[in-house]
Amino acid sequence: MSEYTYLKKEAYDANMRLPELGLVLFTFGNASAADRQREVFAIKPSGVPYSDLAVDDMVIVNFDGDVVEGDMRPSSDTLTHAVLYKQWPQIGGVVHTHSTYATAWAQAQRDIPIFGTTHADHLTVDVPCAPAMDDSMIEGNYEYETGWQIINAFRERELDPEEVEMMLVSNHAPFAWGKSVEKAVYHAAVLEELARMAFITLQIRGDAPRLKEALIKKHYLRKHGKEAYYGQ
Question: The whole model's pTM is what?
Answer without folding.
Answer: 0.96
